[in-house]
Design goal:
The protein has 331 residues and is α/β, with parallel strands linked by helices. Helix content is 50%, strand content 12%. The protein has helices at 13-24, 36-45, 67-70, 85-92, 117-124, 139-143, 157-167, 180-202, 207-227, 232-236, 238-247, 254-263, 268-272, 281-295, 300-309, 315-323; strands at 5-9, 28-32, 62-64, 75-78, 101-104, 129-134, 148-154, 172-177. Helix 1 links the parallel strand 1 (5-9) and strand 2. The longest helix has 23 residues, at 180-202.
Length: 331
């Protein structure tokens, strides 16, 4: 499969980082961006000074406002905020070719419908070959050429191998998985637990509390994923546990930094104010709780995160509710 050119749909920090690493892998790269100023900066000054400042771009990386132009590339990487994927996929529909790889790099669950990004893309782009790229990877690390390992999930192993080889180079490694649902769920729901981990840090509850929260959060995450059809081994892998460890362990994570602000006593509006990037854990928590309610999945931490961000309880009330839960077997 010839995969020489890569169209990046979305010029945020992660989209820009993927453009940089794809170029380092020897691909021809074209970025679709919504903001005219971002397009101008990428094409003229070779920097995304709003979303990834200070990181120079290869002059061969170009930007466009045209979906039709971006869709001429051999493969497309969807890197827009998850809650916008439906609208943008619908606009891309007339231009996507039969059999064209469409790699979802957005992490989230659609709040209104509870649908996964791969399900939405499958509905709106039935002609495309859907894949999911997920795993522990901060945009600035990837952009600066630091080592990172991610999961490339596709139903077809040959496609997954072709995509992995097209994007991989020594510092950036793609590992194939056949579990699209598992890779996607891991990348989405870890953001909810990153908010909880941030609250623990912001409240200065200590390293022991942080470790306990992340471990019990992973138990919920695995339970949720398996109930929706994911494989347990996927939840233990890069796109599950790996992404959770990264996102819950560094304030670089916008979800964790949001949780830290809540733990320090700021309101949800104050914590979100002035952010250029989307805190995906907020809508994902709502979607998770809705899905869990209809399927009978027990998610006490996710439920309390949703209760806090929706304003139904305070941070202190959420912590008290979790600590007052009945003792039970760990398994």
């Amino acid at each position: 499969m010839a995969l020489q050119s890569v169209g990046i749909i979305g010029a945020g920090a992660w989209g820009t980082a993927l453009a940089i690493t794809a170029r380092r892998a020897g691909r021809d790269v074209l970025i679709w961006a919504h903001e005219p100023a971002t397009i101008l900066a990428i094409n003229e000054t070779h920097e995304n000074d709003v979303f990834l400042p200070g990181v120079p771009l290869d002059p061969a990386i170009e930007a466009t406002a045209s979906f039709s132009e971006a869709a001429t590339c051999d493969m497309l990487l969807m890197v827009t905020p998850a809650q916008h994927l439906r609208a943008i996929a619908a606009e891309l529909n007339p231009y996507v070719k039969e059999g064209q790889p469409f790699v979802i790099c957005s992490k989230g669950i659609e709040q209104k419908t509870g649908r996964l990004m791969s399900q939405i893309a499958g509905d709106l782009l039935p002609m495309a070959e859907i894949a999911v790229l997920s795993g522990p990877s901060f945009a600035v690390d990837v952009a600066n050429g630091l080592p990172a390992a991610v999961t490339m999930a596709t139903a077809d192993e040959d496609l997954g191998s072709a995509l992995s080889h097209a994007l991989s180079h020594p510092p950036f490694r793609c590992y194939w998985s056949g579990d699209v649902i598992g890779a996607e769920i891991g990348g989405a729901v870890k953001n909810v637990y990153a908010i909880a981990a941030g609250i623990v840090v912001g409240k200065a509850l200590g390293a022991s509390a942080h470790a306990g929260l992340v471990t019990r959060g992973f138990a919920e995450m695995a339970r949720f994923g398996v109930a929706l059809g994911a494989r347990l081994e996927t939840m233990i892998g890069l796109s599950g546990l790996g992404d959770l460890v990264l996102t819950c362990g560094s304030p670089q994570s916008r979800n964790m930094s949001f949780g830290i602000a809540l733990g320090q006593g700021r309101s949800v509006d104050e914590a979100l104010k002035g952010r250029l990037t989307v805190t995906e854990g907020v809508p994902t928590a709502a979607a998770m709780v809705e899905i869990a309610g209809t399927r009978g999945i027990e998610l006490p931490i996710a439920e309390q995160v949703h209760a806090v961000v929706s304003g139904r309880v305070t941070v202190d009330e959420a912590i008290e509710a979790l600590l007052a839960r009945p003792l039970r077997s760990e398994l």
